[in-house]
Design a protein that fits this description.
Keywords: Membrane, Transmembrane, Transmembrane helix. It comes from Streptomyces hyderabadensis. This is Integral membrane protein. The protein is mostly helical and 194 residues long. It has a domain of 131 residues. It is built from 6 helices and no strands. Helix 4 runs antiparallel to helix 5.
Length: 194
C-alpha cells in the first residue's frame, strides 16, 4: 500500500473546499446552527406555556412584607395613643377646670366606650397586619387577595377619619396593594408548594 493511494484508509485526510469532510476526523460545525442528533430543547417552563414559578421572594413582595410590618408598628403606636387619650378623657370628664375648654369638650363628646372601641379596633387591625406579614412567605392566592383588600381598606381608613396621621398608612397601604397585586406578586402567591 502506498501512502498516496486515495483509497488507503490509513492515509492522510484528503479533501478540499468542495468535498465533504472525511469520516472519523473532527469537524467544525457552523455557528448558529444546532448540531446533529437531538433537536434543541425548548425553554424550561412550568407547563402549559406558563413561566416557571419563582424560587425566591421577589423584591416587590418583600417590600410589601416590610410595609406590613411598618403598618403593624404604626398600629401599635395608635393603640397606645388611643388608650392614653381614652384613659385621660375618662379621668378628666368630671374636672370643673376643663368644662369651659372647647377643644376638650369636643373630645369629651365621644363616649368612653367609643374611644375604647377605637383602641380595640386599632389593636385588631394591627394584629391583622401582623398575621398578613408573617404569612407572606407561605400563603397562597387567597392570602394575596386578602392582603390587597386589607391594603385598600387601610388606605381608605387612612384618608377619611384620620387624614393627618393616616397619610402614612394610606401611602404604605397603596404600595402594599400595588406590590402584591402586580405580576411578580401573583407569581409568588400562585407558585406550587410541595
Amino acid at each position: 500500500m502506498s501512502f498516496g493511494d486515495p483509497n488507503n484508509p490509513y492515509g492522510p485526510p484528503q479533501g478540499g473546499q468542495g468535498q465533504q469532510p472525511n469520516y472519523g476526523y473532527p469537524q467544525q460545525q457552523p455557528q448558529g446552527q444546532p448540531g446533529y442528533g437531538y433537536p434543541q430543547a425548548p425553554p424550561v417552563s412550568a407547563g402549559y406555556g406558563y413561566p416557571a414559578a419563582p424560587t425566591s421572594m421577589p423584591g416587590t413582595v418583600s417590600a410589601a412584607r416590610v410595609m406590613l410590618w411598618v403598618i403593624f408598628g404604626l398600629q401599635l403606636v395608635g393603640v397606645a395613643l388611643f388608650a392614653i387619650s381614652a384613659a385621660s378623657v375618662d379621668a378628666a370628664k368630671n374636672d370643673d377646670a376643663l368644662k369651659d375648654d372647647a377643644a376638650f369638650q369636643q373630645l369629651a363628646d365621644y363616649s368612653s366606650g367609643m374611644l375604647w372601641g377605637l383602641v380595640a379596633f386599632s389593636l385588631v387591625w394591627g394584629v391583622f397586619a401582623l398575621v398578613l406579614a408573617i404569612k407572606v412567605g407561605s400563603g397562597g392566592n387567597g392570602l394575596r387577595i386578602t392582603t390587597m383588600i386589607f391594603a385598600i381598606i387601610t388606605a381608605i381608613l387612612g384618608l377619611y377619619p384620620f387624614i393627618l396621621v393616616g397619610l402614612v398608612h394610606t401611602v404604605l397601604a397603596i404600595l402594599v396593594a400595588v406590590f402584591v397585586g402586580n405580576s411578580n406578586g401573583a407569581a409568588w402567591y400562585k407558585r406550587p408548594r410541595y
